[in-house]
């Protein structure tokens, strides 16, 4: 009996404990949760064990998986690629839809079309991207050969997500989800956030990421990056560098990608490290982008600084000369680069520029400067000044901060107040659905189309509206408390400008 049949035959009783044991008994032997291994090669050093079934594959998650199987998106579950604090990642093959799609492509035309099924994968056909080119380089798929997917399943434990709110709070796209205390909904938001960030990066086409396929509640399906022998592509941390030049190559590549992510995709990774980058076909792929934020997030620059620090720390450990964190930061956020020749969206032009123009950190003073840089409070723009900025300014720290904000960068970073009254952005969160229990409800599937239709105050119920308005009022009241008086702000800006 196939796994799908087993799922179909499953009856759900009131007694959850019973259901739990029933499902686990039925499927734990079918769903391979042990470390993924086909013929050879290991994936991750993390240990997968039976306990993961209880932790991650709870009855609810099983039902979401069933829905994905029923829709032909995924088929077999072949084992665990990684077990982590927040999520487990599993390997699966694409389902029948993808097979059918391959067949019909084979029959009709060589032309690259989004599959019927993946039409709601939301990968708008907005022109070829680098990522698409990547796909074109793949050997043509034989009829019957299935794509491989990585399935990231977020754990439904509350504790893990506790400190994660700060990444969602302050995100314009997720403002409706603030103060979301229902852990299941929080996880759903988290998975959607990762999906949306992946999609955004994938569509921009300047930085390789796994192709996002589908998201359903706490289950995210994406392209599986593999070495060709069934095992996952290595994390940068595990990558066997050929020589020192290759270490330098990936260092420059990483810095260029941080800039592209910021300037083109308008995102800061916010958990960038040698663990969250995979080397696939000689290129760096960013993964694990659930916590990535947009530049207008109040802490985006702090996250960016942290990313740079982590990356530098790793490459220094690898024994190469590194640049100062402050310089890299400036390189990333400056819209224009002095003496830049070539295409600013081109990876090798950027890498070339980095190699030639950034100055290697050598002396103790350079290190001391970075120490100061790490401890600085980062001001996003002069009009966003608050009391504490003013204090720091009077302490004489402000000049350095200002010099970090490339002048023309100011227009690049939207001011928080520009967003205050916007309620119908196309980038709006749609995860407020109360109905996340109904796994058969197709409309629950995340979709931009749907988002466009459902968003808008028209569909809000009265209580929600009241609460939203009340919250907005309170937020404004809070903001007023710390607001610098206009005349002080003016004076401050004037003073700063005259210091230039
Ligand atoms: N698309 C993919 N293709 C191949 N391997 C992947 C893919 N996505 C994730 N992995 C593997 O799974 C691991 C964990 O993925 P990810 O970093 O997204 O999860 P996580 O949220 O960091 O989990 P943790 O709680 O361990 O931090 C990665 O280090 C990588 O080895
Ligand atoms: Mg990770």
TrEMBL record:
Keyword Glycoprotein tagged: no
Cofactor(s) the protein needs: Mg(2+)
CC terms in the record's Gene Ontology section: cytoplasm
Swiss-Prot/TrEMBL keywords: ATP-binding, Cytoplasm, Hydrolase, Kinase, Magnesium, Metal-binding, Nucleotide-binding, Ribosome biogenesis, Serine/threonine-protein kinase, Transferase
Protein residues bound to Mg(2+): 276, 288
Gene3D superfamilies xrefs: Phosphorylase Kinase, domain 1 (3.30.200.20), Transferase(Phosphotransferase) domain 1 (1.10.510.10)
Entry annotation: catalytic residues: 271, 288
Listed SMART domains: RIO (SM00090)
Gene Ontology BP, a term: ribosome biogenesis
Catalytic activity reported: ATP + H2O = ADP + phosphate + H(+); L-threonyl-[protein] + ATP = O-phospho-L-threonyl-[protein] + ADP + H(+); L-seryl-[protein] + ATP = O-phospho-L-seryl-[protein] + ADP + H(+)
Main enzyme class: transferase
UniProt KW Kinase keyword: yes
GO MF assignments: ATP binding; hydrolase activity; metal ion binding; protein serine/threonine kinase activity
Composition bias type Acidic residues, residue spans: 418-451
Principal location listed in the UniProt entry: cytoplasm
InterPro entries, alphabetized: Kinase-like_dom_sf, RIO-type_Ser/Thr_kinase, RIO_dom, RIO_kinase, RIO_kinase_CS, Ser/Thr_kinase_Rio1
Region (Disordered): 412-500
Basic and acidic residues bias spans: 452-477
Subcellular location: Cytoplasm
Residues binding ATP: 152, 225
Stored PROSITE patterns: RIO1
Top-rank taxon: Eukaryota
Residues covered by the RIO kinase domain: 46-334
Family per similarity comment: Belongs to the protein kinase superfamily. RIO-type Ser/Thr kinase family.
PANTHER family listed in its UniProt record: SERINE/THREONINE-PROTEIN KINASE RIO1
Protein name: Serine/threonine-protein kinase RIO1
Originating species: Maudiozyma exigua (Yeast)
Lineage: Eukaryota, Fungi, Dikarya, Ascomycota, Saccharomycotina
